[in-house]
TrEMBL record:
InterPro entries: Sortase, Sortase_D_2, Sortase_dom-sf. One of its GO terms (molecular function) is hydrolase activity. It is an enzyme of class 3 (hydrolase). This is Sortase A. The lineage of its organism: Bacteria, Bacillati, Bacillota, Bacilli, Bacillales. Keywords: Hydrolase. The gene is srtA. Its EC number is 3.4.22.-.
Length: 201
């Protein structure tokens, strides 16, 4: 007769203990609207600068540079009709991924979801290569992202040129599905970043 009561008392004590631990842990948590993007964004803008500095005209007889192995998973295809752009999008804005493709910053929102999904690519000096012609995009243009399961149509609503340290371009909210494209500006000896913001229509 005493066993059920003792067992109940023990279970209540364990529950109270767990509840106190949970309350303490949750009270110590600092609410954040988004992950800290300052460091990954700084790394991406540094990669953009380095590639621009490296991209000098190559003499036809010069040896090709060693191949950089692409390590990212293909998560989609980006297409912008105005500038005849069609590129694979790889997961992770690394040096190897950005050498031959556009790269999704994995620290930002997934493509097609609420938040701000950022894609970076080099602005190659070769006409039409990578984000070379991104400066020709206009407000109202459509940016299409095709994944293995969906096709998203984003409409451009803002174009800006910002300092390389301006991480506010990655800000999102809890309502809109935003796409941000990032590249260098100007084309030669870039000092700033060209930012295209589009919203899922």
């Amino acid at each position: 007769m005493l066993y059920p009561r003792a067992n109940e008392w023990y279970n209540d004590r364990q529950q109270d203990k767990l509840l106190k631990e949970a309350e303490q842990a949750y009270s110590e948590m600092v609410p954040t609207s988004q992950p800290d993007l300052e460091k990954p964004y700084a790394e991406v803008t540094q990669l953009l600068t380095e590639e621009s500095a490296d991209e000098e005209p190559v003499h036809p007889s010069a040896q090709p540079s060693p191949e950089i192995k692409v390590g990212g998973k293909i998560i989609g295809i980006i297409q912008i009709d105005r500038i005849d752009l069609k590129l694979p999008v790889l997961e992770g804005a690394t040096k190897s991924n950005m050498k031959h493709a556009a790269a999704h910053m994995k620290e930002t929102a997934p493509l097609g979801e609420v938040g701000n999904a950022a894609i970076a690519a080099h602005r190659s000096r070769t006409t039409g290569r990578l984000f070379n012609r991104l400066n020709e995009v206009k407000i109202g243009d459509t940016i299409s992202i095709k994944t293995s399961t969906e096709e998203y149509q984003y409409k451009v609503y803002d174009i800006s040129v910002v300092e390389p340290t301006d991480v506010s371009v990655l800000n999102g909210d809890n309502m809109n599905k935003i796409l941000t494209l990032i590249t260098c500006d100007p084309l030669v000896n870039p000092t700033h970043r060209l930012i295209i913001h589009a919203k899922l229509s």
